[in-house]
Write a structure and sequence with these properties.
8 strands, binds phosphoenolpyruvate, alpha/beta, 10 helices
Length: 246
C-alpha cells in the first residue's frame, strides 16, 4: 500500500529566524502517520538540511534546472540540490507555468533531470477556471501528465503527481473532495496505463488545503496526501494537516 505524503510549499516566503521556528515546531509535532516534507526557497536549503538532519522530515526545492551544468545564470541543477540532501523537487507548479512560461516539455525535462540525480519530482498539473468551465479539465491534466510520462518512460512510476487546480491555489476556494477525487482517478488510470504500477504511486491534492478541510480530502481513495501552500507557513495548521493523514 502506498504511504501518504504531505509537502509544504513555502513559495517565496520565510526568513532564517522564522524558518528555524517553523521547522522546530514541525519536528516537535512528530510522530506523523505519513511522510512529511518541506520545499523551501533555494537559499534556505543549507539551513533546512542542518536543522532537519537526524529527523524523519524531508526537504526539497520548488524548481530545478533541466540542464546539468553550464551558462544558465540563475538556475540550480539537480546535482546541486542532491548535495544539499534534497529528497524532492517540485516541477511544473502553475506559478512557474504562468509567470515563467514553462511548457509541458520543459516541465518533463526538469522532472527527468531531478530523477537523474536521485530526487523525486513532484509534478504539478491542473486546469484554470476557464478550462474547467469549458469542460477541458480532463484533457488538460492528461496532456500535462502525458508529456512527463513520455519523457520519463520506464522511470515514470518514480514520480509523485500533484493535482493542483489553478483556481484553487491561494484563493481559499478548495476543490470539493468529490471534484478532486474525480480528477485523481483519471490521473491514476493514465498512470496505470503507462506504468502498470499506479497503485503504488502517490497523487497529492493541492489548492487551499487547510486545517479544517484536509481530513476529508485525504480520506478520498485516490488522494494520497497534499501539497500545501499558505497553510504550510503556520506551524499549528501545517501540523494539523500532517496529522489529518490516516
Ligand atoms: C501551492 O502553491 O502549491 C498551493 C497549493 O497553495 P495554497 O495551499 O496556498 O493554495
Amino acid at each position: 500500500m502506498r504511504s501518504k505524503l504531505v509537502v509544504g510549499n513555502w513559495k517565496m516566503h520565510g526568513s532564517r529566524p522564522a524558518n528555524a521556528d517553523l521547522l522546530s515546531a514541525i519536528v516537535a509535532g512528530r510522530p506523523y502517520t505519513g511522510e512529511v516534507a518541506v520545499c523551501v526557497p533555494f537559499v534556505f536549503l543549507g539551513d533546512t538540511a542542518v536543522q532537519l538532519a537526524g529527523s524523519d522530515i524531508r526537504w526539497g526545492s520548488q524548481d530545478v534546472s533541466a540542464h546539468a551544468q553550464g551558462a544558465y545564470t540563475g538556475e540550480v541543477s539537480a546535482a546541486m540540490l542532491a548535495e544539499f540532501g534534497c529528497r524532492y523537487a517540485i516541477v511544473g507548479h502553475s506559478e512557474r507555468r504562468q509567470y515563467h512560461h514553462e511548457s509541458d516539455e520543459l516541465v518533463a525535462a526538469k522532472a527527468q533531470a531531478a530523477l537523474g540525480k536521485g530526487l523525486t519530482p513532484i509534478v504539478c498539473v491542473g486546469e484554470t477556471l476557464a478550462q474547467r468551465d469549458a469542460g477541458e479539465t480532463e484533457a488538460v491534466v492528461k496532456r500535462q501528465l502525458s508529456a512527463v510520462i513520455h519523457q520519463l518512460a520506464h522511470c515514470a512510476a518514480e514520480m509523485v503527481v500533484a493535482y493542483e487546480p489553478v483556481w484553487a491555489i491561494g484563493t481559499g476556494r478548495t476543490a470539493t473532495p468529490d471534484q478532486a477525487q474525480a480528477v485523481h482517478a483519471v490521473l491514476r488510470a493514465q498512470l496505470q496505463a503507462a506504468t502498470g504500477n499506479a497503485t503504488q504511486m502517490r497523487i497529492l491534492y493541492g489548492g487551499s488545503v487547510n486545517a479544517g478541510n484536509a481530513a476529508t480530502l485525504f480520506a478520498m481513495p485516490d488522494i494520497d496526501g497534499g501539497l500545501i501552500g499558505g497553510a504550510a507557513l503556520k506551524a499549528a495548521d501545517f501540523i494539523t494537516i500532517c496529522r489529518a493523514v490516516t
